[in-house]
Amino acid sequence: MISPDAAREGGRPALLARLATAAAALPSADAIFDDESLWNSLGIVGDWRGERYRDAVYFIKAEGLGLIRIGISRREDFRLVQHQSSSPVALTLLGHVPGSLQVERLFHDAFAPIRARSSWYHSLPILRRTIHRVTVL
Hints:
This protein has 137 residues and is α+β, with helices and mostly antiparallel strands.
């Protein structure tokens, strides 16, 4: 995990170097999230886009902060409103995937090296590409 205070520990260049090192340690998003047997084992089968599942793992971007939140909710649109009410910056729902706590944990574990704090992650290209590939808005 990269500390939110990392920018103060050597400045922005040091933070960017730490993020680049963390990103290099991440496995390929293709290898993790394009594995159909993985989705089947989690109870998400076939082409789920357009279907409504009980819970969804959502991805919310904090505009201008370079951070993305990974969370779970039955109503991701309502969750965005809840987060927005306490956020000093605009938030945008990037998308969601059907899921459970198990699916949310999969995302948290996969991107742990770029975790900023709690459920917020640094918005690196590999995370953004993964979100783009697996989510629906």
